[in-house]
């Protein structure tokens, strides 16, 4: 069982930055694929970014088209924490952001249904 707790959300002006954190329980954190999704009112939950491990290279990351070049995902395995650095924020980034985990490793699914564990979410609001 994995428990995920997000933090770092808040209100920011357009063009600003926020850093989200997701603290995970579990002894095999480093083998999990970790991801961030977001959901705005009335919209489907959207893949934002994901990070996984590989035996042949450093962590592999993958981003949704709407955040490429602005958001960056990283992880600290020693602290069982994954981060989402969000820069150049836009009003359309306003949503509840969720941390998710799945234990296959070696891939970063963009479908929400591939993930087994979810945090409670943290609100990000970007004002214009």
Descriptive overview:
There is one protein chain. This protein is an all-beta fold and 128 residues long. 0% of the residues lie in helices and 48% in strands. The protein is built from no helices and eleven strands. The protein has strands at 4-7, 10-13, 18-24, 33-39, 46-52, 60-63, 71-76, 81-86, 95-102, 117-118, 122-127. The strands form two sheets. Strands 2, 4, 5, 6, 9, 10 and 11 form a seven-stranded mixed β-sheet that branches. A four-stranded antiparallel β-sheet has the order 1-3-8-7, with no helix packed on it.
Beta-strand percentage range: over 45%
Structural class: mainly beta
What form results from the Cα inertia axes?
A: globular
Question: Main sheet?
Answer: 7 strands, mixed
Mean pLDDT rating? 92
What is the rounded Rg? 14 Å
Low-confidence stretches: none
- The beta-strand count equals 11
Keywords:
about 130 residues; 11 strands; four-stranded antiparallel β-sheet; about 50% strand; globular
Helix-strand layout with pairing:
Elements: E1 4-7, E2 10-13, E3 18-24, E4 33-39, E5 46-52, E6 60-63, E7 71-76, E8 81-86, E9 95-102, E10 117-118, E11 122-127
Parallel strand pairs: 2-11
Antiparallel strand pairs: 1-3, 3-8, 4-5, 4-9, 5-6, 7-8, 9-10, 9-11
Quick overview of this protein structure:
The protein has 128 residues and is mostly beta strands. It has strands at residues 4-7, 10-13, 18-24, 33-39, 46-52, 60-63, 71-76, 81-86, 95-102, 117-118, 122-127. The protein is built from no helices and eleven strands.
């Amino acid at each position: 069982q994995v428990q995920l707790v997000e933090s770092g959300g808040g209100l920011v002006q357009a063009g600003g930055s926020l850093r989200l954190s997701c603290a995970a329980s579990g002894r095999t954190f480093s083998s999990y694929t970790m991801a961030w999704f977001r959901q705005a009112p009335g919209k489907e939950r959207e893949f934002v970014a994901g990070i996984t491990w590989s035996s042949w290279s450093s962590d592999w990351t993958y981003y949704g088209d709407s955040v490429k070049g602005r958001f960056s995902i990283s992880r600290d395995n020693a602290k069982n924490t994954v981060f989402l650095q969000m820069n150049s924020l836009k009003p359309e980034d306003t949503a509840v952001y969720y941390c998710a985990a799945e234990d296959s490793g070696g891939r970063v699914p963009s479908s929400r249904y591939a993930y087994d564990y979810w945090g409670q979410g943290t609100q990000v609001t970007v004002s214009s």
